[in-house]
TrEMBL record:
It comes from the Bacteria. The lineage of its organism: Bacteria, Bacillati, Bacillota, Clostridia, Lachnospirales. Residues 139-248 form the Phosphatidic acid phosphatase type 2/haloperoxidase domain. The keyword GTP-binding does not apply. The keyword Transmembrane helix applies. This is Undecaprenyl-diphosphatase. Gene3D superfamilies: Phosphatidic acid phosphatase type 2/haloperoxidase. Pfam families: PAP2. The chain crosses the membrane at residues 46-70, 102-123, 135-157, 177-197, 209-230, 236-256. Keywords: Membrane, Transmembrane, Transmembrane helix.
Amino acid sequence: MFYLISLCYNRLVTGIKNIERDKYVESYAYLSNEENSMRNEKSYGLLAGVFLILSIIFTIIVCNVDVAAIGPEESSVGLSTINKYFHDLTGLNMIFYSLSKYLGYLVFLPVLYFGLFGFLQLVTGKKLSAVDINIWCLLGLYIVFALIYVFFEKVIINYRPEILPDETALEASFPSTHTMLAIVILGSAIIEWGIIFKRRIKTKKYLQILASLLMVLIVVFRLLSGAHWLSDIFAGILYSVTILMAFKALLSRYIFEQ
């Protein structure tokens, strides 16, 4: 009898210790994730700030350094020596231009996907809070991208090196919109799929590889098409990385595990 009472007591004590241990482990894991999240937010926020400064400095350089009238209709272009040298190498290549143009339409597929994803969450949950926070962050990224696009359409830094066959006048080309579209939209899609398909490793992997390949092809084809100056492409990359780093910092604030 005494043995049975002693055995029950020991099991009870062991059970209580296990519960306390599990609570400690969960609490520690939560705090660890929170600390990692804060570190990631600071790191990505710092990177966003650095790339923003680099983007602004590069824009100022393009506006003021080695400016010469080498564009169509004697339009002025910054960093004219290196821009002219590279454009003379590529010329206007309509094959690469068409490839970058039509591949660019595929970039909007992730936008439609995430838009539908968020809409279904909203309809199902019947309230704004039912939509995942990462989808709201993505919407913010799209808005920022649109504002930057409008800004550089109004504030002309460079015009295209060529007047394209389907155009009748000079068109703004700094920074390269196709470059930014590919990197920002596909880059953010890669990040989002890492969250949404966290446990579906193969699906996540295939989507991220396809998006990365498409991103590289669009940027390379745009560069070789001759529809932009070299500085336009480089600026597009800088501004795109700035936006993506800010996006990662924002996600790190709200999502512990990405």
